[in-house]
Every structure is written in C-alpha cells, then in structure tokens.
## 1
Amino acid sequence: MSTIPSVYDLKGQARALQKELSCKLNLAQQKLASQYGFRDWAALSTASKNGKTADHLTKSTLNGKQKFELPKEVADLLRDQRASAKPEISTIQAFETGLLFAFDIKEGQDFRFDEVMVPDEHAIDICSTDVAPVAWNAFMEEYLLEAEVEAITPNELQKLVHENDIDPVEIVMDSLSLVFVRYAGEQLPTSFEDAYALSLDRSFWHPIYMWFQGKFINLEDLQEIRVHGKVVKSTLN
C-alpha cells in the first residue's frame, strides 16, 4: 500500500498527463483520479490532504450509508486494473458529465447501436468503482438474509466469508460482466426521463446502471421509472 502523493505532486502529474493526452486539465485530473482508484479529482485531493493510502477502494458507500466494505483482495485487484487502464477521452467525458448505460451481459447483446448510442468497451475501467460495491452489498445482503443473520461486524464478516468458501473476487468480477453504452450525440439530454428514453428506443431490456451528468444511478434501486408520465418500469404491486 503506497501513500497518495501530496496535492502539489498530484497537480504536477495532472499537468503532465494533460500534455501527454492533449486534453483539458479537468479530463487529465479525472484520468489521474481513476488511476489512483478514486471516482474524481476532488476525492483524490481530499484523500491526499488527509494522508490516506491508495487502498481507498476498500471503503464502500451505498445510498449515503456505510455498508459492507469490499474485501481487500477485490479492492487491490480493482485498484491495479484502474491504474493500468487507458480509457478513451470520450469515455471519461461520458462518465464525468455525459451519459452511460450498463446492461446485463446477455440482454445488452440485443441493444440496437447507432451513431447516437455507441458501445463502449473501456467504460468498465472507470465504472467498476461504482458497480463493485453495489454488487458486493447486494450479494451479502441476500446471503445474510437467507442465513437469517440481521447484523454482522467486519471481523465476523471476514470469518464468514472464509469459513463458507465465498470467493469475493469471483462474485465481483462476475458482476462486472456488463455491456456499456455511451451517448455520442451532440445535444446531451437535460433530464433523467429524456436520457432514460434513449435506452427504451433501442432495447427491449432495461439497463441496470446509469451514469448521467456525473451522477451514478443504480436503477435497480428505483421502485418506479416514468418517462413522460408513463410508467415504463415498476417493482410496485
């Protein structure tokens, strides 16, 4: 585990990366943050000022509440993958301010791509930080529900995973087998409804995750989705 460089050094690295990629500084900063395993530049800067180490991915937040942390072996693997990843500038822009969808690997095969909605094989390099904690929490919540366990400490969780031969890496890596779709049009939709409608026009299946204007949305958490006043997806009775 290495300590994150000072903010001064990080700024220097960002400027060097900006020159290397011939891009805007904010995109270089986003790329650098991804390499260190952070969602954005602000999170990386804050961690640097607080003297944190680069294994911050072990801290998982879901819906604003601390839940099950990613096991260290998973966090280390994701961090290494992000550090070596080379996402396209267009992918970084979509993640930071644009629009991305993620579909189940099988259902995504039926998506009708065109010049507006294009496949993006590099998106997982950036989006894994959001998806992995959601997948791990979903698995553990279901597992503990079946085991009729209401609460568990981190040490108890680690023991349970070891004693029951649960492979966190396999579980999380399976969850990252997704089809990513990136918006490549000229005029980005201004509302969630208009953005979501782009997936409805091109697929019978609904996306699982969505990144819109810099915000990660776990669509599985939404009980009901309306587009232009019409319910298009609902888990309500």
## 2
Amino acid sequence: MLNKEALEQEFIRNNIYVDEGEKNICDNYIEVTLGNTLKVYNAPYLSVTSPTSTKEIIIPEDGLVLKPNELYIGRTTEYTKTYGFVPLLAESEELASIGMEIHVTAGFGDNGFEGTWTLEIVCTNPTKVYPKMPIGRIYYYPLIGDANIEYRGKYFRQIDPTASRLSQEYSELKKVLVNKNVNK
C-alpha cells in the first residue's frame, strides 16, 4: 500500500489524480467526500436483465436522513484517475461504527479507471448525511503485471451516481446467442 510520501510522488507523476486530493492525503490514503445527489431504485423489484428506473434525491445543505436497510446510490464529489495502481475504496472506521456501509460491492477499482466512485450506501440506523462530508478513503496498491491493460468498461468516466449497468451485459450476451442461433 502506498504511504503519504508515495502518494504525493504519484500525484506529481500523474499516475494518481483525485480532485483536490493533494489536500486530502493522509498517512496512507486519500479522503473523498459525498456528492450532493443520491439515487434510489424506483421499482417494485430489481431486474438484472433490464435497467431499473431510479429517482434522484438532492441532499440539502442541512442534511438528509437516510432510512435503514434502503440502498442509496451516491458518488464521490471527487473525480479520480488511476494508472499503474489498484485503488481500494472503503468507509472510515467512524462511519462503520455507526452502521454505515458506503461500498456494498468489492471496493477494488481498476487500473486506468477515470471517473467518480459509485457509492452503494446502506445504514443500519437512521443516519443524517451532508453534501461534501468525508465519506470514504481510497487506498492504493502497486499493480503487479501488465499496466497497459486499462479499464474502459461501462462505468468509465462516469460522473453522476450510477445505478447498475448489469443489464448491458445481458443485452450483449443475448445478441451473441441470437447471432449464434441464426448462423446455425
């Protein structure tokens, strides 16, 4: 894992970029903050084969109370870029100790990712959040292997809170299967 001095060097080399990140470098991570909007799924059930509609919520300056066991899709305020390293997003111990998770999925990012980080926020208790409050930490680990393989997937250069795009994989798989059957 990179320490403070190594993070500062990689900023200079442009291998790591986080909006205003130089000011938020701590001992061995960069602190990131919560964007000012959230999305919630707006459907009776979620489907993995088709997109599910969402509803946007703007977080007021005086805060928004999140409901327990509801999934909120958020984002970091900061736009990030990572080259030659594997970033890992995690909530702080302080947020974890009040029962808040900010990244339900595996927190590892990809070499070559550019964009804001999607946050899948779940609370065990009603919890008030604020725009630009510290929400997480990005740790960086050296990449072993071919650093020329860079992420250019469906979340590349995302800005807004991004709901699941899993249905795109099913659409592509369906096209392959249809073409396979047509060519028989």
## 3
Amino acid sequence: MAFGRLGNDKNFESDTSDLAEINIIPLVDVMLVLLIIFMVTAPLSIGGIKVELPHSAAKSTGIDEKRVILSINEQGDFYLDRVQVSSHALPDRFRTIFEGRDKKELYIRADRGVSYGRVVDAMGAAKGAGVLKIGMLTQAQATPR
C-alpha cells in the first residue's frame, strides 16, 4: 500500500488525510496463473481409465451430461466413474444408480483386448438392474484420404 499527504507542511494536521491505493496487479497475476493451470489439467483428468477403444465406422450419437459410463480395462476390471467395482457388486451398484433415473441408459467403454464374456457379464448386470438402453463407445475410424 502507498500512503501520501495532501496539502502544505504548514497546515499538516488540519488538511492531511491518508491515501490508500490497492495494487491489484499481483492478484490478477495469481488468477491468470490459476486459470492456465486449470485449463491445462482439466482435459487430462477427463480420460480416467486407460482403455484402447476399438474403431468403428458408425456415426456417433450425442450423449447427455448425466451419462453413466462403465469402463472395462484390458484386465477385465470394471470402473464406474473412475472407481473400481467388483463383478459381484456391479448389479447392486447399477440398481442404486438407476433406481431414481428416468433415462436408464448405460454406455460401455471396453478395451479392445477385453474378453467378450466380461462385456456380456456387464450387460447382463445392467439389464438385471433395469437398464433399457446400452451403448458401446468406440473410436471413430480414420477415413482414408
């Protein structure tokens, strides 16, 4: 903060007042640095579980923000919202998630190396919990030039 005096030195006590200036430049600098940090780290946190999706030539459909995504990695482990779930607990978790929802849709991100049986197990658990639509997430196939 900077302080100064107004007036002459003769009448110092009668016409003086302190001037306070707030310097907001350091605050703006800190806010810009935080903004840059969040902009860089936000896309990195979206991926979550490492899954190599199979390629598909099918057109993609829009997915709303309140989607439920089940990820299955190459070892066959199940993940709901980046939290590992055992195969025995999966039906109960699905029931808990979908009991209060109007849209009973599940999207499955399965690694291309996972066995078909693990995907079928997940689909059976979802159907048993009342899921009406199941979508498979894939990577868009590269178009030849």
